[in-house]
What we know:
This protein has 3 helices and 5 strands; from the N terminus they run E-H-H-E-E-H-E-E. It is an alpha+beta fold and 130 residues long.
Amino acid sequence: MARRFAASYEATPRSVGVVRNQMAALAADCGLDDEHIADVKLAVSEAATNALVHAYRDLDESGVIRVEAEIGDGELQITVLDQGTGIKPRGDSPGLGLGLPVIASVSKRLEIAPQDVGTSLQMAFACPDA
């Protein structure tokens, strides 16, 4: 039986930690060991931070980060969505540009898709107990 999670958060640094801890709990529920839970935490932190730093950079107020997750069919799927400006080249980026490659390296699958408004980033992790 699939287990699902969905919640929305204000795009703030505090929310990144909340999302990270909630997804770590789901990763533990699907049987991941400490090393792979750390991978989930890293990937989710990078995805939520990207939404925080990049998606809403041109807005005067904070936006929303939506997180959806499902355990089923042998994997944990986590989707981080924003309603920001979409993925665009950024010459003034405050980071090193390593977030997406890091997510890709620790996840089983990574899919990035533009939405009508914002971006969807879906990552999957193999679950031994799902």
